[in-house]
Amino acid sequence: MKQKSIKLVIPLLLFLIFTMAVKVIDVREIGPQSSFVGFATINQWGHHFFGVHPLWDKLSDVFLLFTILVALYFVIKGAFQWVKRKRLLLVDQNILVLGIIYFIMSCCYLFFEKVVINYRPILVEGLMEPSYPSSHILFGVTVLACGIIYFKRKTVTLIFSLVMIILVISRLLSGVHWLSDIVGSLLLSFFLIYTYQIFANVKNK
């Protein structure tokens, strides 16, 4: 466990270092209303290369809805176990750990809504919105990857993996995020996924 805990620190450190780097490296006023953006050269290139495509934005929302339904499945399952067994600690360990992962993920989302790293490369209904990290990718990749670990079924792995890939690609092509937003969300997702893998007691169904 000690060795696994040390390995767990690595993806967290990568995310923290990358996040700090976004705030200090190549920061220029390339965002809407002259907002400052880190990694400006590569982010500006990526935004011009991929462009802005509202259709991909809407498609990513559809796949996010699928992810929300998956998360609700686990939340409802955990709630039923809690009510039936009358004690929270009697809920299956893999469900409890998943609940903690969801809680941490939600806290991260709320934190970065208040502590703005970057604003979106486009205005949303005329307003500037925080864009780091991509909440679609953070939520989608974390929930679906943990679902793959939980179920350990080939069909589920195939479907969830396909949805994750499409979600990341659609978010990238939508043009509502900088490249650094995508990378940051993936790094944070990897940390949460590995945390679940270490602490959950998942058995073959």
From TrEMBL:
Residue ranges constituting the Phosphatidic acid phosphatase type 2/haloperoxidase domain according to the UniProt record: 125-198
Keywords: Membrane, Transmembrane, Transmembrane helix
Coiled-coil regions listed in the entry: none
Pfam families per UniProt: PAP2
InterPro entries noted in UniProt: PAP2/HPO
Domain of life the protein comes from: Bacteria
Membrane-spanning segments: 62-83, 95-112, 132-151, 158-176, 182-202
Protein name in the entry: Phosphatase PAP2 family protein
